Amino acid sequence: MITLITTEIKEALIHLVGTENYDDSKVSKLVYSYDATPQYQSMPAAVVAPRNKEEVAEIVKLCNTHYIPIIPRGSGTNLCAGTCPTEGGIVLLFKHFNSILEIDEENLTVTVEPGVITLDMIKAVEAKGLFYPPDPSSMKISTIGGNINENSGGLRGLKYGVTRDYVLALEVVLPSGEIIHTGGKLAKDVAGYDLTRLFVGAEGTLGIVTQATLKLVPMPAFKMTMLALYHDLESAANSVSKIIANKIIPTTLEFLDQATLKVVEEYAQIGLPTDVSAVLLIEQDGPMEVVQEDMKKLASICQQEQAVSVNVAESEEEADSLRTARRSALSAMARLKPTTILEDATVPRSEIAKMVVSINEIADKYEVNICTFGHAGDGNLHPTCLTDARDEEEIKRVEKAFEDIFIRAVELGGTITGEHGVGMMKAPYLHLKLGDAGINAMQAIKQSLDPNNIMNPAKIFAKDTRKRVVVTK
Ligand SMILES: Cc1cc2nc3c(=O)[nH]c(=O)nc-3n(C[C@H](O)[C@H](O)[C@H](O)COP(=O)(O)OP(=O)(O)OC[C@H]3O[C@@H](n4cnc5c(N)ncnc54)[C@H](O)[C@@H]3O)c2cc1C
């Protein structure tokens, strides 16, 4: 349904934000009709860029009165159709919310506006010898507001956790237009429900984040990077479980299968091996002696698990090119076929080997082309299908394959998404993880905060429950 914005509402919005921040031209509507997720394109009624939180609050009140959907949008890099305006309404941009407000070296916090680019903030705190660990591969373009709302992870998630673990305080405009402040620069705070955590990962469905205070940690003194090569996928996957079972938590423990390696090497041209079945990219940081000791143990575990070779990067440049190559996996694949569908089924680490085998069997069963890479140490795999959305018959097989992958992940004690969120894309699968009672509990929260369903509607909860995927044995 495309929500109509009457002349009166348009004038009220322009009065609030100024003509230069209201755009309902065809070009802009087209630009903001899609995000990084294929197949969910839909036109908004207008694109609005408020200049401050007071304007955000007034926009929200107006939209709430007239039942106009609001789709908050950072850089649109989400992979769950989280910013596609499938119910029409206005796309809300944060281009004026791009300031790093404070780096507090006494409390080890950074306070930012939601439109700040993740890497810009990381560089700003690193210049002061501080460290913000969450590093989604999209960090060169993603925004902090988007990271918070997707609860994004990254290569360093295994040791340091995900965005949620660093959000201390939020300023949020509620769907009623009221502005609340959750949390604070506090190491401890148990005053009532943990509203900060409620808004992290809420995918723009509960309110609009207008400011965030994030935790920083001291910069690790030293780091080392290693590449372990394998002739079979299972040995690589087994190494992951064995490393954790040996009580070593590396900073990074990434997995790439041969298909991914070939594509990434063709793109990055850094001399990655393409004649092996899988590699693990392993990184450790901390005090020099600890890192060196851990790297010896890690190399030995990989060798015991039949790694054909284990190579430590000799310089930071070499290490950085390995990390950059891994981060470019999705972009590298996206060049090969018209449509790239990347998923993030996640299982307990101990089940990685079984999940990798299952993904390959499922790809064979449906005759689809799936490359797999991901944050193996987190159990978070990215089976990625290279396909063509114009081929309806193939797309049906791709959908069936992903359905089977989600079902298998849940069977193994996992989840349908480890870091990309539910959005529109995974809404039909949410009950596989939560069951009806779990979904009802979440809907009760949504209903109480946003009774008119104006905040990013049709995301997280499947609009038509008949379209839910059911498991048939
Ligand atoms: C190449 C590539 C690599 C990626 N790598 C990773 C990765 O390593 N790890 C990972 O976890 N994810 C990754 N992602 C997906 C990830 O979700 C996003 O990159 C990132 O978190 C989204 O940031 P964004 O600014 O683009 O937000 P958007 O996509 O614009 O928005 C994301 C969600 O946040 C909401 N939102 C945005 N701003 C606000 C706000 N101020 N208030 C309320 N809601 C808001 C939106 O409504 C939407 O639901 C990757 C994506 C791409 C394309």
Short summary:
This protein has 473 residues and is α+β, with helices and mostly antiparallel strands. The protein has 15 helices and 18 strands. Flavin-adenine dinucleotide (FAD) binds next to strand 3, helix 5, strand 10 and helix 12.
How would you describe this protein?
The strands form four sheets. This protein has a seven-stranded antiparallel β-sheet with strand order 15-12-14-13-17-18-16, sandwiched between helices. A five-stranded antiparallel β-sheet has the order 5-6-10-8-9. α8 (233-245) packs across α10 (288-304) and α8 (233-245) packs antiparallel against α13. The protein is 36% helix and 20% strand. With 473 residues, the chain is an alpha+beta fold. It binds flavin-adenine dinucleotide.
**Number of helical segments with 4 or more residues:** 15
Distance between the termini: 36 Å
Q: State the strand order across the main sheet.
A: 15-12-14-13-17-18-16
Q: How many strands, which pairing sense, and closed or not: the largest β-sheet? A: 7 strands, antiparallel
- What's the average pLDDT? 94
